[in-house]
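Me: Here is a favour to ask of a fellow structure person. Could you put it straight underneath, so I can go through it closely?

Assistant:
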Amino acid sequence: MRLLFITATRIGDAVLSTGLLGEMIARHPGIEVTVAVGRLSAPLFAAVPGLERILLIDKQSYNRHWLKLWRQTAFRKWDIVIDLRGSAISYLVPAGRRYVIGKRRPGRHRVEELGDLIEMAPPPAPRLWLAEAVRERAAQLLPDDGRPILAVAPAANWQGKTWPAERFAELVLRLTAEDGILPGARIAVLAAPHEMFQARPVLQAAGERGVNLFEKSDLLTAAGCLERADFFVGNDSGLMHLAAAAGTPTLGLFGPSPEARYRPWGPRAAFVRTPESFEELTGALGFDFAARQCFMESLTVEAAEAEARRLWAWVNRGN
């Protein structure tokens, strides 16, 4: 059997789709998998069981990337096509069964929408496929020295949903203080290389306990490091979804993005948001998604710390 899995270009959405892919592989042992995905997200699928090939979707003008994908897939018979982009491709290739994502449903989490696609409730949770070499690299960067690890991702792909770096710095120092949830913990700071200006203040505040992962790790190595962490806190981002998929207790910080749709998924995950709702922030007079400003200013360190403590207590009750 052959499966064509067309998923997201953005890292966060790609991570959220991994549960659905994993479920289809489990239902069809031995199935050959082809994944069509954006270049940045492609490493997430490198160790997928039964992977035959990865087809990169690099966006081009006039939707020429879809024509390229059609040429790569049209002359094979697919037993199953799953199209999470809602493109015409899934209807233009030979297929036995087709699962094509439709319009968004208000109030529905993305993971729940993917479960609806195969009529599965509860929906399959996101997961990671990591090769042993990736885990070994992560162990080199974060060796087990008896101290806990707090992972923090102070950047995001949009400045509007990026909590101020100085507040991240204060929060991680509170959480790793003697009376914090992780006393004396190492502070692993993650970000993309071009986001170092947001990450560096947090690393500097961490002092000798800080671990620079934004200059030393790629996406898969970051996932391996998150798997080793005891707790994660970060903006609404792909790294947040990676941490939750790894099973690490994950706190996501939200403002001008909808937590109903994109909160970190799983029983060991939680979110805290600005006092204003997503609708209040984005519906305010003069709000502009293209603006180069922060819309997270009203989220206090105290509120984030309180939710981190609540989640930590919940996790340690064994729930």
User: Anything to note?
Assistant: The chain is about 35% helix and 20% strand. The mean pLDDT is 95. The CA atoms of residues 168 and 202 lie 6 Å apart.
